[in-house]
Amino acid sequence: MRRLTSDGDDGGLAARVLGRLDARLSRDVERPLALALSGGGDSIALLRLAAEWAGARGRRLLALGVDHGLNPDSGRWNAFAEQAARAVGADWRGLRWEGTKPATGLTAAARTARHRLIAEAARAAGARVVLFAHTADDIAEADLMHREGATLGRVREWSPSPVWPEGRGLMLLRPLLDEGREPLRDWLRGQGADWIEDPANADPRYGRSRARQALAVGGTERQPVSEAREASSAEGLKTVGEAVVEASRDVAARTLAATLVCVGGGATPPRGERLAALVRRLRAGEAFTATLCGARITASGETATLVREAGEMARKGAGPLRLTPGVEAVWDGRFAFVAADAGWSVVAGRGRLSHLSDADRAALAPLSPQARAAWPVLVKDGAPGPALAGAGVERRGLVAERLRLTLDETTHEDDLISAPRWRNAMEPPIFPDRHIQTVGPNGAADDRGPQ
Question: Residues 323, 300: contact at Cβ < 8 Å?
Fold first, then answer.
């Protein structure tokens, strides 16, 4: 493949994109850089640019393609994507969405499945960053869909994986957000490269296809990319424990939404109207307790405290999490555990707190009753009762770590290098004060075919 940084129009595009990769990614490290590759024009352009960058910066490039099994040509598309990846020296892994497909909400389910498969494969390979080929046109289409009532979030250049807990610790980088779809294809033609055109992209049954057609005929005004991106401050937000967060009453709505999702351990952000009502009550100085996204928010005085809603855990009937020796397991989306030997399970504290030792109950005393009820405890086969800790069991709180990524506290892959802090579960819980400094909306997936 000829170099992409030659003079002329090619060099202008390549220099911009390679500069964005330089600004976010580490050089000369062993772990691979992952890339979502569908075989469409956008992803093929990104593949060629990323391969140029990786070759010059001492990185391995791993291309990941997902066959959803929904189109009779999907197998051919994946074969084409594999050939394109190997042609530029990238490694390849083909993934497939197995199982029964839903009769309704298929587009959203396929989108989630794609992100989940890619996240699992990237983490298994040791990658910390996955490249996605969203463009300025995708932002414009999503904005139009949003104005027409769709609930899509906004894509950002640098954001966490939208699936949880499969995507924990994984960031998505979209270095083409300032580039247009047609200029990318013109650039590919100049490179002599081929790509796939998915007929679904022109199918009016799909909302994104309708938005694309409306923008193409000039039926609506295209919003500038710089205005389509939003950020907000997280001043006044702090964690006061491994899974407890305090917020000021003037906390930004986007910050509050992210915090609710992280504290609740889920992946679905709150609906706009429910979030807006919660913000109004906070701003009004009202004292109240409410539940949203699996989190319980208690407003009193100048602050609001967010903890996991233990009642929802009970209503969902979440059973014990059995730990497999040596394998990390995530409990309730908020804690990760690794056990050295067999026989351990993780359960909620609710209904078991009175059976803890005096020392364990004292360790939990700083927490509110709701937080204690939703706190993880360990049970061991043959043991007389539950305990906060067990010999050979390590625990890691995920809420603060997840907030750090979601609220833009990381700006570079180097920020992700240090290993997460594992604590031996024999240690008592630690409740450090820690301020979150910046915030942005959570990453959003798209519903595209090959781009």
Answer: no
Beta-carbon contacts of residue 239 (< 8 Å; ≥ 6 apart): 245, 246, 399, 400, 403, 432, 433, 434, 436
Residue 19 confidence class, pLDDT cut points 50, 70, 90: very high
CB 233 within 8 A of CB 250: no
Rounded Cα distance, 288 and 283, in Å: 12
Sheet holding 376-380, edge to edge: 321-322, 344-348, 376-380
Alpha helix (H) residue ranges in 348-433? 358-364, 369-373, 399-406
The pair of three-digit structure tokens given for residue 310, joined into one six-digit string:
């233990």
Phi, psi of 179 (to 5 degrees): -110, 145
DSSP letter for 354, please: G
List the structure tokens of 328: 């990390």
User: Tokens in use for 268?
Assistant: 């679905």
pTM of structure: 0.85
Judged by DSSP in three states, 448 sits in coil
**Token pair recorded at residue 33:** 């850089």
Asked if residue 441 has pLDDT above 50, the reply is: no
Q: What share of the chain is helix, strand, coil (3-state, %, to 5)?
A: 35, 20, 45
Q: What are phi and psi of 105, to 5 degrees?
A: 65, 30
Q: What is the dihedral of CA 439, 333, 165, 292, to 10 degrees?
A: -50
Per-position b or e across 201-237, b if 16+ CB within 10 A of its CB: beeeebbbbbbbebbeeeeeebeebeebeeebbbbbb
Asked whether the beta carbons of 178 and 136 are under 8 A apart, the reply is yes
Packing angle of the helix pair 74-87, 41-57 (nearest 10 deg): 30
Cα 302 to Cα 299: distance, rounded to the nearest angstrom? 8
Are 360 and 388 contacting, i.e. CB atoms less than 8 angstroms apart? yes
Retrieve residue 158's tokens.
């640098």
The DSSP code for 144 is: H
- Tell me the pLDDT tens digit for each residue of 238-255: 888 789 999 999 999 989
Here the tokens at position 6 are 């030659």
Q: Which amino acid is at 250?
A: D
Cis, bond preceding 428 (omega within 30 deg of 0): no
